[in-house]
Amino acid sequence: MKKLVHALTAACLLCVFIALPACNTTSSSSSSKSQLWEREMGAIADVAVNPNEANKELNLKVDLIEKGKYGRRLFRKLDPKFITIHSTQNYTGDAYAHAKALKRGALRGGVCGYLCWHFTVQDDTVIQHIPTDERGEHADFDGPGNTYSIGIEMCEHKGNNQLATMDRTAKLAASLMYHHNIPIENIRAHYHWPREGYDTPNKNCPHFLMENGQPGGTWRWFVGRINRHHQKLVKYDAQIREQEEKRKEEERRKRMVYQFIDRIGNRVTQWIGLS
Questions:
Q1: 154 and 86 in contact (C-beta within 8 Å)?
Q2: Residues 6 or more apart from 90 whose CB is under 8 A from it?
Q3: CATH code: domain of residue 222
């Protein structure tokens, strides 16, 4: 009987050891992918960066859809509270091609009849299509994704460097967070905004940052990278405030010294009877 119990125990343990790797396949694969990408992109230095200089590094080109036409034919005010990250899943069109398509109304859909979003990013540039105070058509029709978020599309065309595109997108998102006072928890994947009426309301987008069609470890890594870029901008502001406080303190001490000298001078003058 004891031998049978030992045999059953050993069999159960063997099953557990066999099952464990299978349970962790998704998390380990996402972890290894993000770790590989992090190594290839390089660590983000913990240094202060001037937000104006950071904007210049984006290589931003403003190429707006004409006001009153296509995606901008209806003016709907946007007070951005979120940033929504997409991927184009267009393997032939670069950022310039998407700008042309939006400007001639080639992409149909959404509430106003035409798709539009705020920025398209590729490895070497960012193109802006609509102002950040105007609502786009990129996420969820009349839902909060369109109503409250800035939309960013990442290019996937042949020859485009995906890692450079992701890092430029992370820098753009960090800059938008800084200028619009958007918290890191409000960086959302397109997946986050369900589309009413679709068989799969939560889109697998941006697909190369998802696991099994939804956010996981790779997405969290990407948001962390955005946050590290944002902290560099915040750190610059902190340094400026510290420098300003030091300058004010130095001026205060100088005034105290001058006031002390004046008081001593007045007393000396009174003592020798010159006043």
A1: yes
A2: 98, 155, 156, 157
A3: 3.40.80.10
Our count of domains for the chain comes to 1
Residue 129 covered by a domain: yes
String of DSSP letters for the chain: -HHHHHHHHHHHHHHHHHHHHHHTHHHHHHHHHHHHHHHHH-PPP-----HHHHHHHTTEEE-PPPTTSGGGSS--B----EEEEEE---SS--HHHHHHHHHTT-SB-SSSSB-B-SEEEETTEEEE-S-TTB--BSSSTTSHHHHHEEEEEE---TT--HHHHHHHHHHHHHHHHHHHT--GGGEEEGGGS--TT-SS-S--TTGGGEETTEE-HHHHHHHHHHHHHHHHHHHHHHHHHHHHHHHHHHHHHHHHHHHHHHHHHHHHHHHTT--
Question: Could you identify the residue written with the tokens 């290839």?
Answer: 40
Q: Looking at residue 27, what is its pLDDT?
A: 55
Q: Which domain holds residue 106?
A: 30-239
Structure tokens at 230: 């944002």
Q: Is residue 181 part of a domain?
A: yes
* Cα torsion through 260, 262, 268, 271, rounded to 10: -100
Amino acid at 103: K
pLDDT averaged per 10 residues, the chain (length 275):
45 42 52 92 95 96 98 96 98 98 97 97 98 98 98 98 98 98 98 95 98 96 98 92 63 71 71 63
175 part of a folded domain: yes
The structure's pTM equals 0.82
Distances (CA, A) of 214 to 89, 148, 207, 220, 232: 16, 21, 8, 11, 29
